[in-house]
Write a structure and sequence with these properties.
By secondary structure, the chain is an alpha/beta fold. It contains 8 helices and 7 strands. The chain has one domain: Glycerol-3-phosphate (1)-acyltransferase. Helix content is about 45%, strand content about 15%. It has a 7-stranded mixed sheet, with helices on both faces. α5 runs parallel beside α6 and α6 crosses α8. Pathway: Lipid metabolism.
Amino acid sequence: MELATQGLNRPRDAWLWRLLATALSFLLFGLGGLCLRLLVFPLLACLPGDRQRQRERARHTISWLFWRFIRFMAACGVLTYDVQGAERLGRPGQMIIANHPSLIDVVFLIGLVRKSNCVVKQSLFSNPFTRGPVSSAQYIGNDGSMDMLDRAVASLQDGQTLVIFPEGTRTEPGQAPSFHRGAAAIALRGARVITPVTIKVDPTTLTKCEPWYRIPDRRVHFSLRVGADIDPQAFASQGPAPRASRQLNDHLHQYFIKELAEDEQPPTEP
């Protein structure tokens, strides 16, 4: 897997070119989703194997394409990126928790973690461009129900890797992330290990309610940093489930606030 840091000091492309490249990227993503739904996944369904094997094929296909999509955007000059610690992602029963500053955070994480499960917006199952991939991959729709929580727990107990964004939606620019307690409750019931991933986008782009064509004045850089593992049982043993869930959620919240604040500190002069 190509994880080499993209050059940060390359000459910046013109604003107009980046706008056109961004439009092309969105067009490619939409057409790719339709192609997967109408052509690729029906063909994959004809291959031998049970439902689990078909799910694994779909997830592997999506992951492979997502990472190629990231590489395409980098090659076009839309963004640069660096990833630290990706080799520690993708373990059985691992729950990957990340903050959510941009629309394409999930593309990065699914692209990095082959065959991972993911909790996604429920609306993606009715979107004509995304419902084919999310349905074939059997991702979990975040409808806020107990069934959603139970499915997430079951996937971890089954040995799957689960990607989840505890905020439930993208972070407001300039605001600290605010986590819902559902992710912590899922982790306490099913995760073997929790692995936090801090995502920073500079300058901000594709935030909540921001149209795709409102691109920043300079090229965007995505930084993904995999943190140290967290043992959910260390919190589960501290009391009743509601209390343990609250303590774990507070711990995760404070962890991300600290990590993001450190990222924002200016470098010291030598």
